[in-house]
Amino acid sequence: MATLPAGPTESPAIQTVRWVVRPLAFMESARRRYGDAFSVRFMGFESPMVMLSDPEAIRALYTGRDHRLPPGRTFALRPLLGARSVLLLEGREHLDRRRLMLPAFHGERMRAYETVVREATEREISTWPTGRPFAIHPSMQAITLEVILRAVFGVSDEQRGARLRTLLRDLLDQTAAPGLQLGVLLARRLGRLGPLERIGALRAGVDAVLAEEIAERRADPHAGEREDILSQLVAARFEDGSGMDDEELRDQLMTLLVAGHETTATALAWTFDLLLHNPGTLARLQSELAHGDEEYLRAVISEALRLRPVVPLAGRRLGSELHAGDLVLPAGTDVTPSIWLTNTRADTYADPFAFRPERFLENPPATYSWIPFGGGSRRCLGASFAEFEMRIVLSTVLPECTLAAARERPEHAARRNVTLSPRHGTRVILQVRRPAPRRAREPVGSAA
Ligand code: HEM
Fold it and tell me: How many CB atoms lie within 10 A of CB 421?
């Protein structure tokens, strides 16, 4: 019987607090002490979780076909996303949904959303004050929420859009509360729903509006010509010819909102933080954008996602024994790559903590050593969408706005729901605002 790798010896309560309060420092100190693989114990979980950062072990994990999800993903998210969310289903049911949903997220399709993203960004820029500090993270959230409402949900009725915007902001604020995870864990120990009860009530309000949107789409004889993702999901068919029913459509919409909104907004906030604290890189990016070259922009985004991965863990429960070099883990073990430790390995990345997009001009990100989107058959379904959206937002903001960092030092990471986010929301100062340049039809964000 294989034993699990050693790891921090403090009680689960202490390890949980360290993980919640200083996640990067917690993982970094475990890497220093225990190396590439170590076991952690979190409150509310019966078994330890093994964290990995060796790309070979991650390849073994992500190419395994019979792994399941660790319980942490399902118990915390099911009340919000619903039982048939693609993020939560396993095995055949999961693969069927992925197959059905993937075409809507294909890189080429993203072009249709360029105007939506640019307009949402322009609107947001016009609200920024000049000459005094403000946090850019909430602005990025407003943009990504608007993009989900228009490009994913396809909301075009202004009143319904306004209702949904208010309801969703409330719901997303609740799910981002700093004490939520601990609250959910404690309530679970007591056999209660705890904070999930209020989230459930808010969700009911959102569900009612989504039901209207779905009904409208089903009744629209021209829905097939619409470009939003909901219209494509309504039309999509499983292999047996059936489609998703209304309840399932609602689960997938909620999943796309929760998986795609905060993550992309946070990735953008981190990218601004890194750029504004690295003026040479910012100057090069601005110059390349002025020449209509997007290669450096792509490298900047890859580097920001490497150094500040928004989602720290993307784990599995082993369906069979995992072997990688000397590491052997028994079936049933909960295992997760530590995305940040993997992305900052000194043997993969020279000067791993430096923000150097140039490294990705020479070598594109590698599948198992650059994992901000997880991997294998559960890799983020919206990765192309997110990178596309980031390209459009950055290539809209940077030519129009001269921004400076409002804080001398780069941000520390704080936990916000399942994400690692800039503690102070990336405070910036808008120094100069220029009119939007006239744009050629060929977009800088042409799809990946
Ligand atoms: C920078 C932004 C984003 C980051 C960092 C991110 C990261 C992730 C990660 C780490 C996973 C788990 C992968 C795994 O378990 O291997 C995931 C899954 C997922 N993401 Fe994203 N994501 C982002 C944006 C988006 C967007 C924009 C959407 C859709 C609109 C989206 C939809 C999904 C879905 C549906 C899954 C579940 C995939 C499955 O289980 O098969 N994500 N994402």
Answer: 24
